[in-house]
């Protein structure tokens, strides 16, 4: 049975901007939550969003969700916590979300105390920490260097729960934070209320993606009930349910170990946890333990490595498809030779990549004797160069052979198909992740900066 002290955390969705059905959200409010908490970011969609400092989600979708949450928060007089604002948690992402928050407050007539928590890092500061021995690589990353730091356009440090606790202790109604671990934003208020670390962190892990721990993942988020002995999780939507399977399976989501989870300053151990159906909709979890660890914050960095242009062609020639691997080898050799002799670029000056969708574009290459012959293939050709003009120039040079390259010189010219006209599609800057490291800190707030303001008053107050 649950303990006498229960903290209720309303998690409306897995990411701000993905939406929570009104019926589900209203039911969540009726359960009297102590806090509304949601994540707003991820690295799932690659390094571009961190490198460019932009949001994956549309502004209108974020504003729709944030309005719903701000209205619900005001009705109950409870805090609203949002982590990893703007997808990657850059300073730009926090300010972008704050601007939307101020718009909604003005439209809804709300005077709200807002705390902004920034966790973007300068290369100079990290270079000092690197020199002091505070930065360590996570496998399989190599040791960090100052040169690698200089390659990053944006670097963020993943916060734990402590910055949220600090903001709430100073009276914030809404906390908009930079890059945060998905779990920390949900565990913050239970931990502030001195509930045990095991149930608090474990509950946060299970609910980090909202309804993903339920049997019907599109019907909104969940409510967490954390107490001294464990926690319970229940879907917000009355026609949804949680099962021991759906809940326990989430320990494996983005986690290599089904029992252990590392968070800033702690190691969650769920090896002895039990998952029991409390009702036909709700699951109770007990037996989770935590032990303290040296406090580290993960570093994420992304930097621009060039520009890309894409050409997409479709192949349905049976003879070519029967020997597609050999055809692509011949195509590459012909293109590389021509790019050198005609355009004057050596292979080190650019990147040329083929992705044959419908034939091993996503899966590892199959043995030729066992691989089925595809009915058709969409060949994505990607050219990477130091600038967009060069990438497009090389892609245009490839154009004729992507349309007509034969399997052998004796064959008549085949005709393939381009998906677009013009065939070359400029993809813009290409970013890549540069860091997979942790930095040790003595103070959980050491790499964060906080700003407080009240909507409608215009002036923001910085706090070191």
Topology at a glance:
Elements: E1 7-11, H1 22-30, E2 35-41, H2 48-52, H3 59-76, E3 80-87, H4 91-108, E4 113-118, H5 123-131, E5 135-137, H6 146-150, E6 154-157, H7 162-169, E7 174-177, H8 184-192, H9 197-207, E8 222-226, E9 230-235, H10 244-248, E10 260-263, E11 266-269, E12 274-277, E13 283-286, E14 289-292, E15 296-315, H11 318-322, H12 324-343, E16 350-357, E17 377-385, H13 388-404, E18 417-418, E19 424-433, E20 437-440, E21 449-454, E22 461-463
Parallel strand pairs: 1-2, 2-3, 3-7, 4-7
Antiparallel strand pairs: 1-8, 4-21, 5-20, 6-15, 8-9, 9-13, 10-11, 11-14, 12-13, 15-17, 15-18, 15-19, 15-20, 16-17, 21-22
Helix pairs in contact: 3-4, 8-9, 12-13
Short account of what is shown:
The chain is α+β, with helices and mostly antiparallel strands and 464 residues long. 30% of the residues lie in helices and 28% in strands. Helix 3 (59-76) crosses helix 4.
Overview of the molecule:
With 464 residues, this protein is an alpha+beta fold. The chain has helices spanning 22-30, 48-52, 59-76, 91-108, 123-131, 146-150, 162-169, 184-192, 197-207, 244-248, 318-322, 324-343, 388-404; strands spanning 7-11, 35-41, 80-87, 113-118, 135-137, 154-157, 174-177, 222-226, 230-235, 260-263, 266-269, 274-277, 283-286, 289-292, 296-315, 350-357, 377-385, 417-418, 424-433, 437-440, 449-454, 461-463. It has two domains: 7-119 and 158-295 and 441-463, no CATH class; 303-433, 2-Layer Sandwich (Alpha-Beta Plaits), CATH 3.30.70. The strands form three sheets. Strands 12-13-9-8-1-2-3-7-4-21-22 form an eleven-stranded mixed sheet, sandwiched between helices. Strands 5, 6, 15, 16, 17, 18, 19 and 20 form an eight-stranded antiparallel sheet that branches. A three-stranded antiparallel sheet has the order 10-11-14, with helices on one face. Helix 8 (184-192) runs antiparallel to helix 9. The mean pLDDT is 95.
